[in-house]
Amino acid sequence: MPNTWSVTNSRMAIVLAVGAFIGWLYDSIAGGLFVAAMAILAWHMYHLYRLEHWLRTNDIEDFPTGLGIWPDIFARVSFYRRRSRRRGKRLRAVLKEFRLSASAFPDAGIILDSDNELVYFNRAARELLGLKKRVDRGQRLENLIRVPQFLDYLRTEDFDDPVEFALPPTGDIWVSCRIIPYGPDQRLLFLQDITRSKQLEIMRRDFLANASHELRTPLTVITGYLDALIEEESIDDLLRMPLKEMQTQSSRMRTLLEDLLHLSALESSEVSSRDEKVDVSVLIAAAKQSAKALPHCPETLEVHMDSNAAILGVHSELQSVVSNLLINAVNHTDPGGRIDVYWVTDEAGGRLSVVDTGVGISADDVPRLTERFYRVDAGRSRDQGGTGLGLAIVKHALKRHEAELVIDSEPDKGSTFSCVFPASRIG
Amino acid sequence: MNEFSNHIYRKFNEDLENLRTMVMEMGGAVENQVSSAIEAIVSGDSALGLSVASNDYKINAMEVAIDEECNRILATMSPAAADLRLLITVIKTITDLERIGDEAERIGRLASQLAAEERPAGSYRELRSLGEHVQEMLHDSLDAFSRLDPVDAVSVVEEDKLVDEEYDAINHECISYMMEDTRNIRRFMDVSWVARSLERIGDHATNISEYVIYMVKGKDIRHTHTDELRDRVLGE
Fold first, then answer.
1. pLDDT at A383
2. ipTM field
3. Residue A305: beta bridge partners?
4. pLDDT (0 to 100) of residue B2
């Protein structure tokens, strides 16, 4: 505002000149100038006082008026104050909207900073975890959710899969927890109440285990009598055939029940311990021996050990993985074909593969192979005495070892079944 | 405060905060052990009971690690006032947590013994109820520790009276079962031991709450009668 400034400056000059003139009349130009300067200073101080006084009040519309440069300053400050208040209002409205929608969210949501300190949490989080609205802000999450599985999950920094755990004190409530990193170093944590589905899963598992267990007892009695009857010499030869058939079928039923029990035991706990070092060559040797015992085993069954590393896990579970894979390969390969077993490790982990030159599997069937009782060719596999549970057992046993089953197959060329173990399981 | 001392101060604060988190982590592991031990008793799962017993070494290792960290902070930082109270509280708290771990280990062993015996009609309902009570006390005392909340701590101390009453009731019941049929004596001795261990866990949780009150308020309220406790701690 050059105009206002020049007016203000010329007014100041006039006041000083008048002061000097009056001073000259009284024989003291310096005294006159001094009085005039003091007057100008007092005038500015008065306006400053009014500005400060007005800034203290909330009444931004009613700004003070004045002379010279001051009305401009008042108007400008008033404009900025109005604008910032408008922006603040808009921001508060957006924030309120966000908080409302976050609190309406049925899952518990928590925002964490780089030290895992709570920045924000919604109402579901308060209800599910018993967090306290004001007290817990800034508190570290590890101090409030102290469940060991959760702390391990938080430490691994690997948030691809959610983690499930029971909430203390009584462990009646199960939650599934997911962490989503965002921004430079922030995390969004979601907790979902999965108690109902967990209960259903437990009920289903218990039912399966109990039913298999209950069926085993009568079956033992039946097999016992059948064994005795077949030994009996006075039995009519006409009955011998059906009795033999009954014996084979009942022993099939027993393997089936044992596999079911085995499977439900594998499903009942989450992760197997890493305390035991399992020698892979021992696993393969035992599996090879039982495969060789099968009548239709191919001539060529070779083992290629590229590594001496052991797997950290449970021996019996890993043994059933290797045996099942090898027996499957034998069952689906002609006696003229070949089977190769490989054990390879590198810094990413270990890979145990069973490669056969058998019938292979079409791409449509591969994803469903590990389902229980799924059969590609129903007639064929049942003739060979399979229970339809082998690969389901393999899958669950591997899952408990944090490993993965990778199937690679082409019809009429052969299949490769690989167990891929993470580096943390190799020792 | 110049930049150097500012840095030291920040590092010190971070150390204390990490120490607190270590204690809470140990608390979480202990809570997990206790709930698994109770689960093993109630569902008659002997494998779970044995795994609780064999996992106790982890708790002991945590106690040793926290103890060392406390010594290091005491030696290098010479803390004073509230910081010193925090350290003293941590040292005492981990001892009680470790003892709770030992009680859980004992319950786990007893669970594997009891699983082999015939189960009573109520499936140890009283033990489950006492167990839930004690688990809540432990949980609340750890929450009070992490929130530095004396109100919660006081209610844990008050709760202990109810746990003692429940423990007495279970003991009376055990005695009457034993008198009814002497063949029951072995089994109900075990039940009585489990109840005893649970009651001890409640006592240790009470101790932790008392340390929290000491840390926050600087008042020693051990051996205070529960009736005047609330007034002494919260009435300023």
1. 59
2. 0.85
3. A343
4. 59
Q: Enumerate the residues of chain A whose CB falls inside 8 A of the CB of residue B132.
A: 169-170
State whether A169 and B138 contact (CB < 8 Å): yes
Confidence tier at A41 by pLDDT (50, 70, 90): very high
Q: Measuring CA to CA, which residue among B92, B88, B162 is closest to residue B132?
A: B162
The predicted pLDDT at position A380 comes to: 58
Q: With contact defined as beta carbons under 8 Å apart, do B198 and B127 qualify?
A: yes
What pTM was estimated for this model as a whole?
Answer: 0.70
Whether A173 and chain B come into contact, CB under 8 Å, resolves to no
Q: CATH number of the domain at A277-425, out of 3.40.1080.10, 3.30.70.360, 3.90.1170.40, 3.30.565.10?
A: 3.30.565.10
- Name the residue of chain B whose CA is nearest to A268's CA: B48
- Mind listing the pLDDT tens digit for each residue in B203-234? 999 999 999 998 888 888 788 777 777 777 77
Q: For residues A129 and A109, what is the distance between their CA atoms, to the nearest angstrom?
A: 11
> Is any Cβ of chain B less than 8 angstroms from the Cβ of A296?
no
Q: Measured between CB atoms, does B28 come within 8 Å of chain A? A: yes
Name the residue among A216, A252, A258 with its Cα closest to residue A385. A252
CB–CB contact A135 B149 (8 Å): yes
Question: How many Å apart are CA B199 and CA A353, to the nearest integer?
Answer: 54
Q: Looking at the partner chain, which of A140, A148, A171 has a beta carbon nearest the beta carbon of B21?
A: A140
Domain A106-193 listed as CATH 3.30.450.20: yes
Domain boundaries, chain A: 2-99, 106-193, 202-268, 277-425
Distance CA(A385)–CA(A256), nearest Å, equals 10
Q: A202-268 — its CATH code?
A: 1.10.287
Per-residue model confidence as pLDDT tens digits over A330-346: 888 888 888 999 999 98
Instruction: Provide CB contacts within 8 A for A164, sequence distance 6+.
Output: A149, A174, A175, A176, A177, A194, A198, A270
Find the CB nearest B28 among A139, A146, A170: A146
Q: Stretch A251-276: mean pLDDT, rounded? A: 80
Identify the three-state secondary structure at position B235.
Answer: coil
**Which residues, 6 or more positions from A116, have their beta carbon under 8 angstroms from its beta carbon?**
A140, A141, A142, A154, A187
pLDDT tens digit sequence for A312-325: 888 888 998 999 89
